[in-house]
Amino acid sequence: MTHLTLSQSLVFLPFALVIGIYVAWRDLSAMKIPNVSVYALFAVFVVLGPFVMPLETYGIRWAQGLGMLVVGMILNAAGAMGAGDSKFIAADAPFVAASDAVLVLFIFCGALLAAFAAHRLARISPLRAMVPHWQSWETGRRFPMGFPLSAALAYYLALPLFEVL
After folding, report:
1. pTM for this model (two decimals)
2. For the chain, what are the domain ranges?
3. How far is the C-alpha of 165 from the C-alpha of 119, rounded, in Å?
4. Which of 103, 138, 111 is nearest to 29 (CA)?
5. Which of 114, 88, 76, 99 is nearest to 5 (CA)?
6. How far is Cα 29 from Cα 81, in angstroms, rounded to an integer?
7. How many other β-carbons are positioned within 10 Å of the β-carbon of residue 3?
8. In the 3-class helix/strand/coil scheme, how is 4-28 assigned residue by residue?
């Protein structure tokens, strides 16, 4: 059980899916998460958030996003994370209830393992010939984190739908 309501899921999920697919595709193909996608995801929260959550919760979620932006900037400066990844995490953060943070970390770990395995298998399979220009095939140890980050957010936002079914 999450602290995300069904109405929040229904409002946020369609937008997060579209933006997430774009982010995953761009990160896989160019190893970059475009700022426009980060702005779009954050705009979804800014515009729609007040309609599906109490204003107090909405304000707390803003603070979460700002906190994650600061943490991401520090990690980026330390070389532990790409700038696009850190900005995307900051844009993701307001969608997640603080009490669900551990759950989201577990979801992300699963998404990361699945995305890494799928990417590495596709890289050595005939599927690679379909998109031979993708930069992520040749980046060595670097990995396009926009792929699992987007998947984890989408899965988290879909959880209330699974509870209804």
Report:
1. 0.95
2. 6-164
3. 31
4. 138
5. 99
6. 18
7. 13
8. CCHHHHHHHHHHHHHHHHHHHHHHH
Nearest of 147, 138, 132 to residue 82 by alpha carbon: 147
For 84-93, 112-121, 132-141, which range has the lowest pLDDT when averaged over its residues? 132-141
**Model pLDDT for residues 57-109, shown as the tens digit of each residue:** 999 999 999 999 999 999 999 999 999 999 999 999 999 999 999 999 999 99
Tokens of 12: 């946020």
Q: Which residue has the tokens 């946020």?
A: 12
- Give the span between the Cα atoms of 137 and 88, in whole angstroms: 22
In the chain, % helix, strand, coil (3-state, to 5) comes to 80, 0, 20
